[in-house]
């Protein structure tokens, strides 16, 4: 069993990542931290609680994170993830409530409780983790592994020309987190950047297969312009909400990138967190641009490892078919 702490801004692809993690019988989710990003932190928390309740896992604690980035004003992206962060899905209002322990303290408690064993996964802005490391600088050296979905090195940015969303929302936090690693004993995080995650393209066929695997009457996946906003008819409740969420994500990508598909950034990072052998990694010293007028939020990788040694391992090489086979098989158990 791997013990994992999940920090996320749920979020459509964060939702898929969460369901994937819940479907893995060999994983113990030690805690979930909500971070402000795709939608405000209270909406993220409600989504995390709702998914847990739907999946029959009210025992997993959800910890509320900071409502705002370290320095920047919060920006959210309902345009990408829908008014409530889960696309067209209308999740039931959760009856369970968040933990009184805040997200940063939860990171610290989890790292101490599972010293040297804990796998960290961050699929949202790094605000909570940065605050946790400020509170306890020993945190990085206590982790077994950290996987971050964030950054863009050779790919274009998806928020500005050069900046990826999770880093763009809280560049100072990302800078602090990278700076805290690469010292003796703190394992360099594996970074799943847009260079990698934009290869993970989900098509309507994948969606239909996924629903069928979960025992739902095979879904018709309408074209983007056909039936926007209509509800899925899947008879499996979890799959119905998931497909309602994902169809919004397809529509967003259709509007902005001219194709009916979705990039599954966060689920792939979740797979890498559990099975790092899925990717090759390039050691690099990663810094985050904080002051450039055109380049704020850009991640810069120095593969010469200057000025210090590597503080990151940049993941490359996604086997897309294998990703969707794995996702379909696991979600199919719901
Ligand atoms: C990241 O931005 C968010 O909108 C997604 O959930 C993902 O974590 C991709 O840039
Ligand atoms: Ca996310």
Q: How would you describe what is shown here?
A:
- Pfam families: IU_nuc_hydro.
- Keywords: Glycosidase, Hydrolase.
- The chain has helices at 12-23, 41-54, 78-81, 103-113, 127-135, 139-142, 165-169, 171-180, 194-197, 204-213, 237-257, 265-274, 320-331; strands spanning 2-8, 27-34, 62-64, 118-122, 143-149, 190-192, 201-202, 262-263, 280-288, 299-302, 312-316.
- By secondary structure, the protein is α/β, with parallel strands linked by helices.
- The longest helix is centred in the last third of the chain and has 21 residues, at 237-257.
- The mean pLDDT is 94.
- Calcium ion binds at residues 8-9, 11, 13-14, 38, 123-124, 266.
């Amino acid at each position: 069993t791997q013990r994992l702490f999940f920090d996320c801004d749920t979020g459509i692809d964060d939702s898929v990542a969460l369901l994937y993690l819940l479907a893995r019988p060999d994983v113990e989710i030690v805690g979930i931290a909500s971070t402000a990003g795709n939608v405000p932190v209270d909406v993220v928390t409600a989504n995390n609680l709702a998914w847990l309740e739907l999946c029959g896992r009210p025992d997993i604690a959800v910890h509320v994170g900071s409502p705002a980035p370290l320095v920047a004003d919060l920006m959210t992206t309902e345009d990408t993830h829908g008014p409530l962060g889960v696309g067209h899905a209308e999740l039931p209002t959760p009856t369970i409530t968040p933990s009184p322990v805040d997200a940063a303290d939860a990171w610290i408690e989890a790292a101490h409780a599972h010293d040297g064993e804990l796998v960290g996964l961050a699929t949202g802005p790094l605000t909570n983790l940065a605050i946790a490391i400020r509170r306890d600088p020993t945190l990085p050296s206590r982790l077994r592994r950290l996987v971050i979905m964030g950054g863009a090195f050779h790919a274009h940015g998806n928020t500005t020309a050069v900046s990826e969303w999770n880093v763009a929302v809280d560049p100072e936090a990302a800078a602090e987190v990278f700076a805290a690693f690469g010292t003796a004993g703190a394992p360099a995080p594996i970074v799943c950047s847009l260079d990698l995650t934009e290869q993970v393209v989900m098509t309507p066929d994948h969606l239909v297969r996924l629903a069928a695997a979960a025992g739902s009457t095979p879904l018709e996946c309408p074209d983007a312009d056909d039936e926007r906003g209509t509800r899925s008819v899947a008879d499996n409740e979890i799959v119905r909400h998931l497909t309602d969420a994902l169809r919004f994500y397809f529509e967003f990508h259709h509007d902005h990138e001219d194709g009916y598909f979705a990039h599954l950034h966060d689920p792939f990072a979740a797979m890498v967190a559990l099975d790092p052998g899925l990717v090759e990694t390039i050691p690099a010293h990663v810094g985050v641009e904080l002051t450039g007028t055109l380049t704020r939020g850009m991640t810069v990788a120095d593969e010469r490892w200057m000025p210090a040694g590597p503080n990151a391992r940049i993941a490359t090489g996604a086997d897309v078919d294998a990703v969707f086979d794995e996702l379909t098989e696991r979600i199919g158990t719901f």
